[in-house]
Design goal:
The chain is mainly alpha-helical and about 220 residues long. The protein has helices at about 45-60, 70-75, 80-100, 110-130, 160-175, 180, 185-210, 210-220, and strands spanning about 1-10, 15-20, 35-40.
């Protein structure tokens, strides 16, 4: 557990100084005899805050008997993104049948075709860029990336393959012509952010350091 003291910016780096209190501390306050001052400089400063927040949440839930961090991290990089899309597509179909929320969409077939084809092309462009740079496209092992791809379609999206899957799901939602099914599209984005994209970003940050940080500042996660 930490008590945040000061954070300053030095050029492109960050300096973070905080007090680390004993693990059994129940409230923030004056430094106890077991406290120590820790200073983190550079790229690891933001990660230190993220790690401490995860420890804090885990500590809070363990008081309730819930192994928080283990449960959440167990789902990271576990389910193939294509399977996730199929699960969401099935859920959207079930919701469309369960909720009578049909809407009329002019030129529905053309809209569906445009969304699905554009999604397929964007995803293919992402895979092709990885192959040109001879780096892995395996969604389970981002730490094995041999190059940070920032050209081609990656100038516009950090995750074109997942963006393509989202567009395909949007096409399916249009095909169902049910506004309730479209409510699952943000849920798909939230799931991918938490269990697929963020773990990948941690791995890329570990591997490429400031190079990835600069890239992530200039290109959005989705679009």
């Amino acid at each position: 557990m930490i008590a945040f003291i000061e954070m300053t910016r030095l050029g492109s780096a960050k300096t973070l100084e905080f007090l680390r209190l004993p693990a059994d501390a129940r409230a923030l306050g004056s430094p106890s005899p077991g406290a120590e001052v820790v200073t983190v400089v550079g790229f690891d400063a933001a990660r230190a805050l993220d790690d401490d927040e995860a420890r804090r949440q885990d500590h809070d839930l363990r008081w309730q008997g819930v192994p928080a961090d283990d449960c959440m991290r167990a789902l990271e990089l576990r389910i193939p993104p294509v399977v996730v899309v199929l699960v969401f597509a099935a859920a959207m179909t079930a919701l469309a049948y369960a909720v009578p929320a049909t809407v009329r969409i002019p030129a529905k077939a053309a809209v569906v075709l445009a969304l699905v084809l554009s999604g397929a092309l964007i995803a293919w462009a992402g895979v092709a860029a990885f192959r040109r740079h001879k780096t892995t496209a395996n969604p389970f092992t981002p730490e094995r990336a041999s190059a940070l791809v920032a050209t081609g379609i990656y100038r516009f999206s950090r995750n074109p393959m997942y963006l393509g899957l989202l567009l395909a799901l949007a096409g399916w939602s249009v095909y169902l012509a049910n506004w309730a099914s479209a409510l699952l599209l943000p849920a798909f984005v939230a799931y991918m952010n938490r269990f697929q994209i963020r773990p990948e970003e941690r791995a890329l940050a570990e591997r490429f350091g400031p190079q990835f940080l600069n890239y992530s500042r200039s290109v959005r996660r989705w679009l």
